[in-house]
Amino acid sequence: MNPAGEEPREQGDGVRHDGRDAPAPPRAQVVVCIGPGGVGKTSTSAALALLAAREGARACVVTIDPARRLADALGISSVGNEPSRVPPPAGQSWAGELWAVMLDAQQTFDELVSRYATSEGQAAAIRANPVYRNLSSALSGTQEYMAVEKLFELQESGLYDLIVVDTPPAQHALDFMEAPRHLARLLDNRVFRMLMVPTRVGLRALEMGAQLMLRTIAKVAGGQVVTDTVQFFTEFEGMEAGFRARAQRADELLHSSQARFVLVCSPRRDTVEEALFLASQLRHEGLAVASVVVNRCYPRFDAVPEDVADALREEGLGGVVANLADLRAVGEKEEQQLARVRSFLPEALVLRVPLLFTEVTDVVSLAELAGHLSGAPAAGAPAAGAPAAGGS
Amino acid sequence: MVVEEFFAQTRVFVVTGKGGVGKTTLSGAMANLAARHGLSCLVVQMAAPGASRPPETAHLSRLFGQDGVLDYEELVLKPLDGPEPAGQVRARALRADTALVEYLHAHGMKRLSRRLATSGALDVVATAVPGMPDILVLGKLKQMERAAAAGQPGAPDVIVLDAPAAGHAVRFLQSPHGLLGAATGGPVRAQAEEVVAMLSDPTRCQVVLVTTPEETPVSETVETAQALEDKAGAALCTVVVNGRMPHLDLPADLCAEVLVGAAGRRGARLSEPGANELVAAAALRRARQRSEAAQVERLAAELPLPQLELPFCFSTELGPAQLALLTDALESGLASWSPVRL
Ligand SMILES: Nc1ncnc2c1ncn2[C@@H]1O[C@H](COP(=O)(O)OP(=O)(O)OP(=O)(O)O)[C@@H](O)[C@H]1O
Ligand SMILES: Nc1ncnc2c1ncn2[C@@H]1O[C@H](COP(=O)(O)OP(=O)(O)OP(=O)(O)O)[C@@H](O)[C@H]1O
Ligand SMILES: [Mg+2]
Ligand SMILES: [Mg+2]
């Protein structure tokens, strides 16, 4: 239904399909919504899942920091970290099912630790370590990493046809794509590796540079920090391999033909530029943007002849004329931004989504938003048939 | 209140709010206003916590008709060459990794600084010491504030910090307190103490909250305000409502026939579709004006802080023309602004 963005993805496929021999994974489609801050990623993610549910899919949306009212409306503000079913608004019915979950990064991380710990004792020791407790708030990209982990977990469950993932605002790099690799990188970091060494071969065997670095950290932040860190790595020992392998599989999922990317932005120059920057980074990874949601656009209005405008002004209706001029001015500028998006991403489906009269705070307004998203990749996901068939 | 008095209240204005509500735009307008009144202003932009790089956009520069992306080196956005006596506007970005290098330099660990600051070592330090990158950045800010207070040559009169989005800002401003509670020692602890001293002294540092006149941003602003006061101990200066539609008088009972008739009375022919466009456009504006007014009122009721307003600019690209307009709005708003809401 929507061939947009398929082609560049195939190029990426050639390199990354080493996971194909593994037992056939459940074929949930994955849609990742990325974009700058405040443009409507969370609203769009939920609306895309709703759209798919309306068309018959079992769709689940993973939201990140949703506005409280939206979370309440979806019934996910009090349920932690597990999907709950969202009923259609009164009087409506959906052919499929809508599920929603609000990501709890800390809990997701804890679960991951439990999964790979060799004993409950090891898991408990890690969870109690101050350095571990800092990980999820201090290590950049942890929220993204946990979002990918949640996505992977839901995909493995085999319960859904479609999983839509919301992401935290991304401005700088493809934090989300890099997230699974991030912990691995941390574990590979020279400094951490050095921190792990003392427990194995003793401080004496450390190279001079490493000793100096350890002493510096102790000097700057106190010796306790070094002790805690060394202890964390001692406790973490043996779990790295599991973490690493799982991160690798999640990474593969994001690079597979099952995953599609929806770029959300507003029609303002700065956010358009940020969004296009994200798109170019995706492209760098061999991935393509399937569609772009240019959200909160003003409706376009036709002009009135100058003599009519004058007449209305004279009749005391100048406000009505001025308003039309204001809205036309901004609408025209927005059209230029859309043109920029289209020319930068000729393969992508570019959707102009209007500024709604109300904010997206409940299932009714979500459904309204969804009405403007048809054609986006999530639509008709279960019917899409052979997502892995790369040749079309 | 006169503009000079407003800016004399404190040395560092920390501008924060939900993502995309207009923090950078307001920072630019505040700096421009200060400059109009002969004060020199430095805008400091921060990368979001964790992110080592500052935002890629040149939004702030563009407000001043330039297009440089902010970096460590100061950029002159508004030079001192206008016809009237005006202050200079400069801007720079602050990043945790470069702050770490500077810090180590200043503490006699020059040799190590380069190596430790590259190759992602900051992640290691950040993980080991919670809030460490924040302390480094705030420490640097404090150093600039001290230089300004001491009237060092070249130091600005006013510093505007274009801070990270609200949730991050709370954590960011809270981190020195957190660090003081943790089992850390050494110079980092001393640094944290000095930063806390700055944050909790209203003559040195105050927070400006930005929001749009919409439900979610308003709700989050109220929460952020409380969190900043309670957890970070920071003084709140004012809240700024950005992007409010300028008010137009639009009859509530407007319909196509009324418009066609009005035009006809003056001998002009307005087609029915043309009239419908006008009616639809007016309905949209009226609905927005109404909901925005309701949100502004709710904000006033729930957050006992003085308010300022910046109008929505009917453009998608903000440059010097829009900056001038926004600065005017800020200036006229300040005329009736007082630090304690009546
Ligand atoms: N088309 C629309 N019309 C009107 N309001 C909208 C529209 N789309 C989103 N909104 C509103 O805009 C605000 C921001 O939306 P949302 O929270 O989805 O953005 P986000 O990109 O997830 O933000 P963040 O980066 O902070 O996570 C919300 O208040 C939402 O209700
Ligand atoms: N008063 C206004 N009228 C019209 N457009 C505006 C106005 N204020 C801001 N904008 C536009 O809204 C977008 C967001 O503004 P800005 O970058 O200042 O927000 P921000 O809070 O700094 O965002 P971020 O959280 O991404 O740093 C920009 O594209 C800007 O041009
Ligand atoms: Mg969001
Ligand atoms: Mg900004």
Overview of the molecule:
The complex is a heterodimer of chains A (392) and B (342). An 8-stranded mixed beta sheet of chain A has the order 3-4-2-5-1-6-7-8, with helices on both faces. Chain A is 53% helix and 12% strand. Chain A is elongated. Chain A contains 16 helices and 8 strands. Chain A has helices at 6-16, 41-54, 68-74, 105-116, 120-128, 130-138, 142-157, 175-188, 190-201, 208-221, 223-236, 240-255, 269-284, 306-314, 318-344, 363-371, and strands at 29-34, 58-63, 84-86, 97-102, 162-165, 259-265, 289-297, 349-354. By secondary structure, chain A is α/β, with parallel strands linked by helices. Residues 1-21, 198-206 and 379-392 of chain A have low confidence and may be disordered. Chain B is of the alpha/beta class and 342 residues long. Chain B has one domain (2-247, 299-334): P-loop containing nucleotide triphosphate hydrolases (Rossmann fold, 3-Layer(aba) Sandwich). Helices cover 51% and strands 14% of the residues of chain B. Chain B is built from 13 helices and 8 strands. An 8-stranded mixed beta sheet of chain B has the order 3-4-2-5-1-6-7-8, sandwiched between helices. In chain B, helix 10 links the parallel strand 6 and strand 7 (235-244). In chain B, helix 2 crosses helix 13 (320-335), helix 7 packs across helix 9 and helix 8 packs across helix 9. Chain B is elongated. The model of chain B is unreliable at 49-54 (pLDDT under 50). The interface between A and B is large, with 86 and 80 residues. One magnesium ion (MG) is lined by residues 23-24, 162 of chain B. One adenosine-5'-triphosphate sits between chains A (37-43, 65, 67, 169, 295-296, 353, 355-356, 359-361, 369) and B (18-19, 214, 216).
